[in-house]
Design brief:
Helix content is 56%, strand content 10%. The protein is α+β, with helices and mostly antiparallel strands. A hairpin with a 3-residue loop joins strand 2 and strand 3.
Amino acid sequence: MRFNSTLVSLPAIASMRHLLGVALITGTLLACSGCRLPALCCAKPGPSLPADFGGVTSVDNSAMLGIDEFFADPNLTQLIVEGIDRNQELRIRNQEIRIAANEIRARSGAYLPFVSAGLLGGFDKSSRYTPLGAAEDQLTFPVAGSFPDPLTNTRVEADLSWKIDIWREFRNARDAARQRYAKAIEARNYLITQIVAETAENYYRLPALDKRLEFLNQTIEIQKQSLDVAIAQKEAGTGDELAVQRFLAEVRKNESERSIVRQEIIETENRINFLVGRYPQPVERTPWDVVGLGARVLNVGIPAELLQNRRDIRAAEREIAAAGLDVLVARAHFYPSLDIRAGIGFEAFDPEFLFNPAAMIGGAAGELVAPVINRRAIQAEYLNANAEQLKAIYEYQQTVLNAFIEVVNRLNEVENYRQSVAIKQEQVAALEQSVDAAGYLWQFVEGEYIDVLFSQRDLLEARIALLEDKQQQLSATVQAYQALGGGFLLDSSGTPLPELFRGPLSYPSQELIFLPEEDEAPREEEALPEVEPLPMSGPISSRRTFDPEFSLD
């Protein structure tokens, strides 16, 4: 259409000018609001994940074993199952998951229109000695004549307000809430592995304390026999009071130690009861001589599997995704926002005429607003979102590094304590023979009582040291299992422990995607295919995020 055409009417030309004016204003707002975005900082790369654990790798991974197979102890498995069902801290974490799920519901409704309905009624009386009152007194109504005095009013209306999500601000906020929901689940699951490990450590401490109590009782009985011999030798004139008092003091010392061990047993049982979520009661356990966890061979897999098996790493990964989306939310504040408001209803001074077509009221308006001057607040918000994103990346790198070091430390601890246990077993065997030899010589007045006393003391100390090393080996094995990511599965069939108290979980699948560049148009919402989480062998990029399929049903 040419503006110099004789067929173009003046109203059409005015309409075209109006549209051009709107387009010009819109373009100006976009140019003024979108220019000169603050520069973002990029994360410094972290250390690359090694290919092995200090030269140790394996095809299998013990983290994939269920607790019933790894521990092979029905009593311990039952305690863990009860703990998962009753533990108060887990119940608190479940409520945090509910809060995160409700946040998704809130964010999911933010980009939809808000519609409200209302009913209004009232009256108004103006003074007839005012210009307004005098004018109203002259008004008439076609059907009913004059308006009543006082003037009543009844209105029924529905209002709509809608902030159009042009730049995906609300949808990105919704996606960030989804990621934090998944993070809450992973954090709860990591707590499960910690509870499993702590329950197992305390459980194995109990039979060790029982065995220590048994050794003390045996030593006390032997020392009482030696005390009787010392008393008999004194009465026969072949001994003295010093030997009697030394043996008596040793008996009393071990009796005192026995009371302390009994207290430790009570406290350990009650720690397990606390983890299980029940009041104090005896804990049924396997005897020390039957505990076979020390012979368990740990299969460590490869370090890259930590990224999938460690729930704290997965939680940190989700936080990176959420923080990246928060940056997009903050960036949208620099661009113009379009608000639409509309309303429709009926209004009349008499309810009799309320739903008459002539009583209909309505209106609509649109508002395009952009920040132009003094944008310091949104700039600070944008830079803070970037700082939070970098913080999440560094925390992820720190979590991965800590997980790797934990595995290496625990593997070396298991091996070193295994060697220490083997050496101490030989020491105990030698001391047992020395106790027999010293006792035999002393009874036939060919040895000194001090040799008997010291040999008995050395044997008890060696037995206790052997117990402690063996217990430390078991504790290191449990911690290595947890460091690898174990303690989340109930059995080898892959049943997650959370199903025992929450029902089947639908974990959001996720796909790696890249954030759009600054000059790209906003992407449309699209459904992502269901894929398995991608294993990652190095630090996450600062421009990488995750967008899972999600359902609250």
